[in-house]
Amino acid sequence: MPLSKLEVTSVKSKKRVGRGYGSGKGGHTSGRGAKGQKARSKLPLYFEGTAMRKSLIRRMPMFRGKLKFKSLKKSKPLILNLKHLELLPKGTLVNLDSLIKFRLLPRDAKDFSVKILGDGDLTKALTVALPASKSAIKKIESAGGKLVKSEAAAPKAKVKAKVKAKVKPKKK
Q1: What pLDDT is attached to residue 170?
Q2: Can you give 63-115 as a three-state secondary structure string?
Q3: Which sequence spans correspond to the domains of the chain?
Q4: What does pLDDT average to in each consecutive run of 10 residues of the chain (172 residues)?
Q5: Distances (CA, A) of 168 to 75, 162, 165, 171
Q6: Which class is 78-147 in CATH?
Q7: For residues 108 and 100, what is the distance between their CA atoms, to the nearest angstrom?
């Protein structure tokens, strides 16, 4: 067997920064450049120099505690396709409790919302009490099932407030 056909058996070790010249990335400054704040310690994510007057922290509302930089958006709903609902027996009421009972969703799914999408076919008549996409609704109804409006399934109605602009007469 020629030497060029042999398999490589050695694995290069990871570079350990700041552990001397023999480490591959080391020595005097360890890849941090020369002097300055960035060379000495870590900077916080929100650092913008010394300009405190217009800094991000001043512009943010006052959230306190560990999670003050966490997004305030609600998480996306858990998605369940129609092909998964095919595992349920005929005539089942499909809601969060029944999906957890039949182990289609984990136990901690009560903390999230669930939406049914129309991927796959449905042959059983089921009563669905969860939000569903248009294609899923069409397939559920064609299989003989029906959709029940529940409190969790119904989207909250957005109330539009009419604001009348106050017009001040111009002084001449």
Answers
A1: 66
A2: CCCCCCCCCCCCCCCEEEEHHHHCCCCCCCEECHHHHHHCCCCCHHHHHCCEE
A3: 78-147
A4: 87 82 81 82 75 70 69 78 92 92 89 90 92 94 88 48 55 64
A5: 44, 19, 9, 9
A6: alpha beta
A7: 9
